[in-house]
Amino acid sequence: MSPDGTLAASARVEALPRVAEAPRGRPLDWGAVAVHALLLACVAVIAFPLYYAFVISTQTIEEVIARPPVLRPSDHMFQNYVEAWTRAHMARLLWNSAVVAVVSAVGKIAISMLSAFAIVYFDFRGKAAAFWMIFVTLMLPVEVRIMSTYEVIGNLGWLNSYAGLTVPLMASATATFLFRQFYLTVPNELVEAAQLDGVGPLRFLWSFLLPLSWANIAALFVVLFIFGWNQYLWPLMITNTEAMRVVVIGLQDLIPRTGTHIPEWNVMMAAAMMALLPPVAVILFMQRWFVKGLIESEK
Amino acid sequence: MKRAVFKNRGLPYLLVLPQLAVTLVFFFWPAFESLRLSFFRTSPFGDKTFFVGLENFEKLLASPEYYQSIVNTFVFAFGVTALGVGLGLFVAALATQKVRGLAAYRTAVLWPYGIAPPIAGIIFLFIFHPSYGVLPYWLGFVTAYEFNWLLKGWVAMTLVIIATAWTHVGYNIAFFLAGLLAIPTSVLEAASVDGAGAIRRFKSIIFPLLSPITFYLVVVNLIFSFFGSFGVIHAVTQGGPGNATEIMVFKVYKDGFIGLNLGSSAAQSVLLMLVVIALTAIQFRFVEKKVTYS
After folding, report:
1. Is B42 a domain residue?
2. What whole-number distance in Å separates Cα of residue B30 and Cα of residue B255?
């Protein structure tokens, strides 16, 4: 460690004059300009599909099918969004997606906190087995147990219900591991002091651990909200009524299939914009938590 | 490990009960059922099942369609991974220049992660649209080749790969940037003092330091495209044209849910389980390594 440190320190001393000199010697750093140009090009390429979808959502059908393609927004936005809203029963779809996203995220966080608390703060017979069972869920994504999970839901009478849409999503190995890691960093002195004061385990969880966990909870919530909002296979299987459809699936009905439909891509894109806005807004406004959640839940 | 431990006989069981109940009912039981069903055949009316041993597996492994779906899955998964991780690494390489405003760039590329792959698929469906889309229009200036995803399997595959990679590129970039921030500035400065150019610096210092993250992202992207890719296929191509985009996960659903061939669908589930177990094992071996490095 110390050879590294000294080397780095001397390097920094030598590097300093160079850094200070740069702006005076060369008014424009062409390297930085090139890097910015390339980064901006990347951003433009990544942003183009969404920009294009938005542009289409503001156009009339004539503009949508015009050649050459019209790449700037038009004035038909309001009509398209109203049309998409009523035709797809958007209010109901968005509500269902919000329920699935919020309930599954909160449920996951709650049961993961409880099981991580049990695993870190208690010694009990079968602890290793419980830990192992939670770990194995990582290897059983819904895609590999499609038919039989569908059967279980059918037997429970949970088809077309919020319970069926949310409860099976609530087991989470990654969330459990995240809270376990976090609890392990909480100093032992805290729990010792609490025990001396006669604080019981549930009280300790509620009044001591929970207030310390808010940053982790927020980070995890953002990631899990997006995960829940964007579920596809699961809701596709266990719902078949319009009233229980989530938005990602409800959009399918609006796709103008080639040959048979009027090419109402403007209405389609208006609906798509409404479906993708909530999760994208959550990422943009809670970006700090989102990045923390992404990075830490993968450890 | 924690020394101070609460003493209570029943409480810890109550605390793990919700998690274990969901795990048992919705994960272990269905997985066990899939395994059991894979050795049975269901009668056409679904009223009887016969034990057939390994027949379901033998039939699958003899079926060219199944091999086609395996090939499609690998093309799809490696396409998404190469495109997503490659672009992520490119942005990471640019970001090592320590230019200003990196956080703003991160914001500008991160948001597609919020878009569900099926919705991304719909957007690209229009961009690729043979009559109205902007991409065939632009390509029309360069070549007379008809980029019609309804007719040409590889165009359909390219469409779903690009749409999926688009939603995931911000994730990869966020991980690379987090990795870059962990590299001490002094290391970079020492390198530039030694006269290493930007490309040299990236190749001999940054990339080796980022290689654990690159490897990790490759595995995560593979897992994601193996199993998270059902939606984009279902929403956009339905496995077509022909079987050109029929990937393994979609075939499990199609054979079981639409074809009602439960035995074959279950056998495919079991084979997929083996794949995910292998990939998860690789992922966690790597995590162990990362712990010892740091």
Report:
1. no
2. 17
Which tops the pLDDT comparison, B30 or B209?
B30
Give B25's contacts in chain A (Cβ within 8 Å).
Answer: 152
Name the minimum distance, in Å, from the CA of A24 to any CA of chain B.
17
CATH number of residue B199's parent domain: 1.10.3720.10
ipTM: 0.87
Residue-number span of the structural domain to which B235 is assigned: 67-293
Q: Which chain A residues are closer than 8 Å to B235 by Cβ?
A: 232, 251-252, 255
Superfamily per CATH, domain A85-297: MetI-like (1.10.3720.10)
This prediction has a pTM of: 0.87
Considering the domain boundaries, does residue B53 fall inside one? no
- The Cα B154–Cα B159 span in angstroms is 9
CB B12 to CB A127 under 8 A?
yes
Residue spans of the domains in chain A: they are: 2-56, 85-297
At A214-251, the pLDDT tens digits run 999 999 999 999 999 999 999 998 998 889 999 999 98
Q: Which long-range contacts (CB under 8 A, 24 or more apart) does B51-56 make?
A: B52/B263, B55/B263, B56/B263, B56/B264, B56/B266, B56/B267
Residue B61 lies in a domain: no
B178 domain residue, yes or no: yes
Confidence of residue B280 (pLDDT cuts 50, 70, 90): confident
